[in-house]
């Protein structure tokens, strides 16, 4: 049995309709109800010409030597029968000029339905989650709201036919088609998530390290807490462990604060006050570089000066609200809170930071007119901002995505600020372990004494690891182990992709074969996606579960028998 390939048939269809330009053909989102749907291909890529009727007009002439057995799509016209202007044809004619390419909504329905006329809503939701998308994704709000309303109107509250399904998904069809076509950065998301779970379990068995106690509120966290959250640049999500427990960002806020300062003022202005070099010293040392500037914004001295650059001239209340608003945008409006108890605890035990502040004031490191004590108050407040692993992973993914929040699509940070932030995270982000981390893991990261590690895989994903027990350098014991194991398994290290290098797993490749690039150039739209699906390759592999010529589904099934050589 040989089957027709959709792309080649459509190409011949277009070539035999010279009065309509290709751009005119793909202009419409809707397709005729009687348009035929194809799957499979000849081994040699050749086809015979098939006579298809669309609004009564023959587009392709048949060749001798082939015969076809098919059932009709609901409302389709049989080429061997007289053409009738039934209701479906009248609807198509009245709908301006219907396109001849299959609409994306129908393609998505058939790929999920596998030959059935109706699908249960939970089957769609399960398939959606398998791609890494969540039903609570802000980009899918219209789809999920419509799904709820539609199910209430059905008799059983469960099943969706093709028309109801189309009504639900049409507002988000481009995103959904990308997901189901495995066009996201991690195409096979479920196997990847399983591997992350295995790495999580391995790190959970570690028992070393101590919970930070120099800030009394931090000492109250259980050493058994352990969580990992991932958000890709396409908004695919995976979490494992205690990912909904709030904790304070502490030093993990430093790169975010620096990114906002550069976004507001530019790189040149910010680095009039702060250097770019690793200090080689403890993060809370009273020490400046040869120009009497803090070495970098990832140590306490640099972070205090960076705090003074936030919304200069405004009150501390306005500055705090501004930072909270910015961080919520980075987190896609997921949880960002504040622990007043931790703030009070920090301020009461912050003698070293007060000493650093006065030293910076003596060396005239602040912009003119800066109130040093007010800056320290804001510094303690920003360290006491709370997140969960889930919301912090979106923040990291915003950095990985060049400043765009993956789950809202909103531009939050400038490309310049993201580039500079990732550069300094890579060289200075892990306290005195920064060189070792850059060598072994090779990714931008920032740790904090609350037990968090904010990890960025540029153009791929953001990760937040959190476990309170720390090693002697102030980094999470389990977090370091997880990051090391992650790069041992996957080729995420900055230099893993050098030629002739030993290969690791690449989750960005489907089935380990070839890299999946987003098709087209520039932002995707409905028409370019529809064209790609219809003209490049088959959308599904299973159209009908049976081989009979009378199929109960509304999908057209083409069967061919080879009677001699093709042309």
From TrEMBL:
The Glutaminase EF-hand domain, residue ranges: 105-187
Family matches, as SUPFAM superfamilies: beta-lactamase/transpeptidase-like
Source taxon at top rank: Eukaryota
GO molecular function, one term: glutaminase activity
EC number: 3.5.1.2
Family stated for the protein in its record: Belongs to the glutaminase family.
PANTHER family, A to Z: GLUTAMINASE (PTHR12544), GLUTAMINASE KIDNEY ISOFORM, MITOCHONDRIAL (PTHR12544:SF49)
Name of the protein in question: glutaminase
Organism expressing this protein natively: Sinocyclocheilus rhinocerous
């Amino acid at each position: 049995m040989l089957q027709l390939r959709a792309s080649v048939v459509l190409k011949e269809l277009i070539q035999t309709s010279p009065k309509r330009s290709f751009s005119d053909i793909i202009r419409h989102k809707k397709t005729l109800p009687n348009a035929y749907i194809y799957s499979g291909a000849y081994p040699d890529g050749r086809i015979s010409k098939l006579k298809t009727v669309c609004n009564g007009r023959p587009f392709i002439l048949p060749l001798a030597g082939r015969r076809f057995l098919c059932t009709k799509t609901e409302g389709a016209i049989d080429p061997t029968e007289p053409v009738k202007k039934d209701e479906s044809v009248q609807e198509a004619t009245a709908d301006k000029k219907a396109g001849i390419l299959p609409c994306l909504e129908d393609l998505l329905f058939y790929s999920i339905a596998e030959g059935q006329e109706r699908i249960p809503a939970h089957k769609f939701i399960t398939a959606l989650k398998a791609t890494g998308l969540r039903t609570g994704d802000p980009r899918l709000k219209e789809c999920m709201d419509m799904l709820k309303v539609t199910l209430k109107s059905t008799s059983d509250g469960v099943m969706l036919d093709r028309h109801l399904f189309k009504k639900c998904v049409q507002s988000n069809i481009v995103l959904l088609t990308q997901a189901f076509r495995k066009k996201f950065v991690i195409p096979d998301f479920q196997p990847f998530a399983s591997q992350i779970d295995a790495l999580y379990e391995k790190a959970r068995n570690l028992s070393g390290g101590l919970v930070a106690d120099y800030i009394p509120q931090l000492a109250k966290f259980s050493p058994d807490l352990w969580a990992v959250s991932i958000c890709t640049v396409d908004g695919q999500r995976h979490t494992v462990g205690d990912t909904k427990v709030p904790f304070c960002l502490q030093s993990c806020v430093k790169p975010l604060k620096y990114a906002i300062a550069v976004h507001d003022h530019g790189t040149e202005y910010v680095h009039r006050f702060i250097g770019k070099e690793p200090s080689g010293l403890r993060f809370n040392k009273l020490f400046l570089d040869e120009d009497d500037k803090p070495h970098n914004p990832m140590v306490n001295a640099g972070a205090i000066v960076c705090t003074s650059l936030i919304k200069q001239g405004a009150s501390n209340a306005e500055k705090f609200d501004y930072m909270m608003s910015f961080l919520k945008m980075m987190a896609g409006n997921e949880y960002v809170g504040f622990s007043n108890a931790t703030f009070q605890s920090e301020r009461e035990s912050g003698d070293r930071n007060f000493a650093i502040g006065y030293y910076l004031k003596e060396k005239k490191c602040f912009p003119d007119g800066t109130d040093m004590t007010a800056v320290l108050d804001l510094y303690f407040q920003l360290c006491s901002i709370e997140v969960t692993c889930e919301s912090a992973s979106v923040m990291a993914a915003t950095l990985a995505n060049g400043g765009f929040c993956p789950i809202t699509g909103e531009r939050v940070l400038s490309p310049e600020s993201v580039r500079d932030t990732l550069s300094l995270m890579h060289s200075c982000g892990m306290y005195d372990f920064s060189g070792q981390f850059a060598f072994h893991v090779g990714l931008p990261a920032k740790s904090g004494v609350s037990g968090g590690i904010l990890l960025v895989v540029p153009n791929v994903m953001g990760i937040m690891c959190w476990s309170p027990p720390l090693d002697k350098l102030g980094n999470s014991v389990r977090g370091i182990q997880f990051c090391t194991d992650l790069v041992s398994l996957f080729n995420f290290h900055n230099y893993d992709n050098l030629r002739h290098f030993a290969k690791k797993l690449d989750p960005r490749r489907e089935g380990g074969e070839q890299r999946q690039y987003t098709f087209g150039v520039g932002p995707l739209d409905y028409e370019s996606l529809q064209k790609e699906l219809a003209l490049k390759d088959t959308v599904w592999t299973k159209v009908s579960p049976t081989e009979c010529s009378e199929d109960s589904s509304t999908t057209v099934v083409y069967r061919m028998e080879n009677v001699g050589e093709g042309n």
